[in-house]
Amino acid sequence: MRRFAARGFLAAAVALALAGAARATELEDAELAWDTGQREDAARIVRNWVAANGDLGASPEALLMLARTAVDPAEATARWEQLLQLEPRGERAAEARFGKGMAAYSAGLYVQASQEFATLATDLDDWFDSGCAQLWVGYSYLGANQPKEALEAFREAQRGADEKEDVIAAEFGEANALFQLGQMREALRRFDKFAKDHGRDGRAPAAAQRSIECLRVLGEESEAKKRANDLADDFPNSGAATITKAEILEQPERATRPEENAGTVEEAPAGPFWVQVASFSDVKNAAELKRRITALGIHDIDLEPAEGPDGPVHRIVLGPYSTQEKARAVADTVATLGELNPRVRSQAAR
């Protein structure tokens, strides 16, 4: 009887071990698919596994993959919260906190996002670059129109970031925060320094254009005009130069008498206008592009739910803008990020 019981126990232990191995293998397959960009496959694998294993779907490994592959930001946030309840610290907890922050940021909940990123920076800095987290705190406060807090966060990011790219981004963010604060003289100095120190950076033309805006606010119009001409020479193919030209085009034109028999032309579409940038099935990719666009000094950004050929997507839309020239200028600016094809749309086309 004891021998039978021992054999039964051994059989049960082997079965559990095999189940655990199968569980690990399937979740590893899902993670591999995720890491190699096959996100739909990753979502299918993990959801099939959860459906087949019931309560085991609440394991940290499964929750991590469920959150990563969730299309709905609300579902992703719920999964991240479940994961944090099970593992409040560690690498998975850091990713969960960052994921919650990104979901809030992409939804325009900037104060909530700043809180998530701040917690990431202070409580989980053993597993996440605190400087990078502070950079996102700064972006969130800029979105919430709280430039004083943003300024402090960007300075913390410069002191603590591990990656040079994050330090450079924080420098540009600091200049934008000063601009929001109305400290135009200091903002001008920072934008000028950024354009000089990082002339090859995609944000350099935007920094030069922001310097022109500072000069205009300071009443130094002659210097602003000179800078505008220099901008077109220094960055001829940049969207910032196009913005400057668009502002000139918007100046009222002297009325002229139309020529007789000149014929008619198709009437231009009425404003307002928007710029459609890109669409993503993964909200985290959309939020990352939104961050990069914000770093160019563009803040009229919306994430719109839409239906793509393969299912729901998150569409990045900029605007509205009063004229086509402004919209095209913004589209040109965003195009400097590379691998994008922004398009201008009128009210009728949306």
Shape descriptor reads globular
What is the CATH topology assignment of the domain at 273-349? Alpha-Beta Plaits
The CATH class designation of the domain at 273-349 is Alpha Beta
Give the helix proportion (percent range). 55-70%
Structural class: alpha+beta
- DSSP strand content: 5-15%
What do the pLDDT scores average to?
78
Distance between the termini: 76 Å
CATH-derived architecture of the domain at 273-349: 2-Layer Sandwich
Structural Rg: 26 Å
Instruction: Identify low-pLDDT runs.
Output: 1-22, 248-268
CATH superfamily of the domain at 273-349: Sporulation related repeat
> What characterizes the major β-sheet?
4 strands, antiparallel
Number of contiguous helices = 15
Spatial strand order of the main sheet: 2-3-1-4
Q: SSE order in H/E notation?
A: HHHHHHHHHHHHHEHEEHE
Please tally the β strands and state the result.
Answer: 4
